[in-house]
Amino acid sequence: MSVPTELLYTAEHEWLRVDGDSATIGITDHAASALGDVVYVDLPSVGSAVTAGEPCGEVESTKSVSDLYSPVTGEVTAVNEALADDPSAVNTDPYGAGWMFTVAVTATGETMDAAAYSALIEG
Asked: Which pTM does this prediction carry?
C-alpha cells in the first residue's frame, strides 16, 4: 500500500494535502483497494459546506457503498468532475488523478501523519 509522507490521513481512510488555507481530499490507496473497483463517486457540490468528521458524499464500488467523510470544515471550492466519467481513477491513482474535492478550510478535524496511518492499517 502506498502512503505518501507529505499527506495527512484520517481514521476513516481519507487523505488531505494542505496548501495554505486550502485542502485537497481523496481516499487512500488502502481504502480504494478494500473497496474494489470504484464505479461511482457522489461528491459534495462546489459552494457547499462540509464539516470535519461528517459524511459529505459516497463512494460506490462493485462490492459496496461507503460514506465519504470530510477531514476538514469549510466550503467546497472544487470537485474532480473527471471522476464522473472515470471513477476508476480512484483505484489507479488515488493520490493524483483520483483526488475528490478541495475545501477552503476553516478548521481541521483529527488527522495523523503517514507513520501513524501506516501503523493503523498494518495493525
From this structure: 0.94
